[in-house]
Amino acid sequence: MARAKRKEAPSRLTQLPSLSSRPAWQGTLRLSLVSCAVGLYKATTASNEVSFNLINPKTGNRIKMVPTDSETNMAVDRASLVKGFEVEENKYVLFSDDELKSVKLETTRTLDIERFVDADTIDRLYWDTPYILAPADDSAVEAYTVIQQAMVKANKIALGRVTMHTRERLMAIEPRDNGLLATTLRMNDEVVNTAEALAAIPQGKIDKQMIDIAERIIEQQEGPFDPKEFTDRYENALHNLIEEKRRGHKVKSVREAPKGNVVDLMGALKRSLDKKPARESVPKKKTARR
């Protein structure tokens, strides 16, 4: 009599509720000769953002974006399109998918830690998109934990590179809770030289009393950062607008706030000092009924 096959227990890692179902990247995390299989999962979400469709108001139907030849105005089958790089005006070098795939780097499948740095040495301008870096399966947990706990004790951030979404990206890896957080860093040519950009702002002589009053206003409004206290009020207003329109209500126009510079700066500062700081008024989002 044939024995029934023993079912293997599912990996605990595939059941983590906070991780998206599909990783943005999968490969190997490597520190010298120590390596483990990992995945990068988005640490942020845009699921709550309002998304509109373009509609033909005469029929109420969604429109289709049809690829069209810019010269002949003829529709083109999307499946037949190729990518091109403009080398001169209206002159392109064309590439097939296979040709683009031939540009393969080791970082396509490997996140190799190259260096460890102090966190405060990375300018905030370079920080970009955060990801949760998690072991891909139970067999990777031991090596992953060794790397994570060593980084906790060293109190350093690891730098490595990975190819993701057709680009090689520099990653800053830091220990967080029981795991690792990996954040893409902008490359040097993507960051504006702020010293040059801000150099044109004139540095006039300011009344010391005005600066003192401004400092006292800052002290009045000091407090800890609690992200729950800050919501996207525009997004909530859009949800409310959608619900009002769904119910057939007429949308009321909103009067814009007056624009212009403050003429009496000292008077404005003194009035601000006397004014008690108000907590953010958060409009509640209306839930549309189905």
Report on this model:
This protein is of the alpha+beta class and 290 residues long. Helix content is 21%, strand content 25%. It has helices spanning 97-101, 141-154, 194-198, 208-220, 233-246, 265-274, and strands spanning 25-31, 34-42, 55-56, 61-62, 83-88, 91-95, 110-117, 127-135, 157-164, 167-176, 179-185. It has a seven-stranded mixed beta barrel with strand order 1-2-8-11-10-9-7. Strands 3-4 form a two-stranded antiparallel ribbon. The longest helix is centred in the middle third of the chain and has 14 residues, at 141-154. The radius of gyration is 27 Å and the shape is extended. It starts with 24 loop residues before the first strand and ends in a 16-residue tail after the last helix. Residues 4-10 have low confidence and may be disordered.
Uncertain residue ranges? 4-10
Gap between N and C termini? 56 Å
Give helix % range.
10-25%
- The gross shape turns out to be extended
What is this entry, summarized?
The chain has 290 residues and is α+β, with helices and mostly antiparallel strands. It is built from 6 helices and 11 strands. The radius of gyration is 27 Å and the shape is extended.
Task: For the structure shown, list the relevant keywords.
single chain; 290 residues; alpha+beta; Ku70, Chain: A, Domain 2; two-stranded antiparallel ribbon; 11 strands; extended
